[in-house]
Write a structure and sequence with these properties.
Layout: E1 2-7, E2 10-15, E3 43-49, E4 61-65, E5 70-75, E6 78-85, E7 90-97, E8 103-108, E9 111-113, E10 116-118, H1 122-139, E11 142-152, E12 155-160, H2 167-175, E13 180-183, E14 186-192, E15 195-199, E16 214-225, E17 231-234, H3 237-247, H4 255-271, E18 274-279, H5 285-300
Parallel strand pairs: 2-3, 3-8, 12-16, 16-18
Antiparallel strand pairs: 1-2, 4-5, 5-6, 6-7, 7-8, 9-10, 11-12, 11-13, 11-14, 14-15, 15-16, 17-18
Length: about 300
């Protein structure tokens, strides 16, 4: 079987030639990101369903995530990847990855769901395809942020902060005013010649918001819940970088990707209004932000 998704302007194509039953797919909200196949996808994954997994000669360990949840090794032809089944902590997926993260040869164990034996694409997306996707994104001037993002009145807003800061809350408040919420958990920011573009993703928060859409990015807010009233402050560039890095998904296994991400952040804070926002769970936050944005713009010009 073949399946294709498009996320953040990148096309990922998965090819399984033996047509084993496909389990729990498409899982919501990935169904909103399905796309037509194209001759040259950004990432191509050729997968074989097999038991046992093949033994692949691994070189030096490059990265170990979450005590062995998944690992990357050096090899003569690129990288070797291995992820574990979280229930039994035994290898579930092994793969060979090209140096540019465009081509993947993967092997996955069969799985059982509702009495049917097959394979689950989500066991490839998390984490194998995410690793390749994040590496490509970072190398090419993009950032995956732990943030809520939305499109409203032809403007793209990013609200970033740690878990519990209010990303889903502010997304819902804007949605009630007619905004398109691209995501309430993870958004993609990509640098283009004419500015920055914000993309939705299928990775959702408590509000379950996910839209396969984009918008020109016009403002970034580091958010938290307020106490008595809405409050907005301009941040120093050094503070912005620190806060964004705390919420950015960085490809720590890829030096080139991390270096490019830092360069993109420098461009972002130069070009984009970046402020802190403490807000209350009230619908007037939308009007408050528009009012403050107009006043700050007038002050600058």
């Amino acid at each position: 079987m073949d399946l294709t998704v498009q996320i953040g302007g990148y096309t990922v194509h998965v090819h399984e030639p033996d047509n084993h039953p496909c389990l729990t797919w498409p899982l919501r909200p990935f169904d909103r990101f399905l796309a037509s196949s194209i001759p040259s996808p950004d990432i191509r994954v050729d997968v074989t369903v097999v038991s046992p997994l093949p033994d692949l000669p691994a070189g030096e360990l490059r990265f170990d995530s979450s005590h062995g949840c998944w690992k990357l090794f050096e090899s003569k032809t690129g990288l070797l990847f291995e992820s574990l089944d979280p229930k039994i902590l035994q290898p579930r997926v092994r793969a060979c990855i090209s140096d540019d993260y465009r081509a993947v040869r993967a092997w996955i164990l069969p799985d059982l769901a509702d009495g049917q034996i097959g394979w689950s694409p989500m066991q490839l997306f998390n984490p194998l395809i995410e690793v390749c996707f994040l590496s490509r994104l970072a190398r090419e001037g993009g950032i995956l942020l732990h943030a809520s993002g939305l499109s409203f009145c032809e403007q793209g807003y990013v609200f970033t902060g740690p878990s519990g800061a209010g990303k889903s809350t502010i997304a819902e408040l804007f949605a009630d005013r007619g905004a398109t919420v691209l995501s309430d958990e993870r958004v993609i920011v990509r640098m283009r010649d004419n500015g920055f573009v914000l993309f939705g993703t299928p990775w959702v928060g408590s509000g379950q918001y996910a839209a396969n859409a984009s918008a020109p990015m016009t403002a970034l807010y580091c958010i938290q819940h307020g106490q008595e009233h809405h409050q907005i402050e301009t941040l120093k560039p050094s503070t912005v970088v620190t806060r964004i890095l705390q919420q950015a998904f960085l490809p720590h296994w890829d030096r080139s990707g991390v270096e490019t991400t830092l360069e993109v952040l420098t461009s972002l804070i130069t070009a984009m209004p970046c402020r802190s926002l403490a807000f209350l769970n009230r619908l007037d936050i939308v009007d408050f932000l528009f009012s403050c944005s107009s006043e700050l713009h007038t002050a600058v010009t």
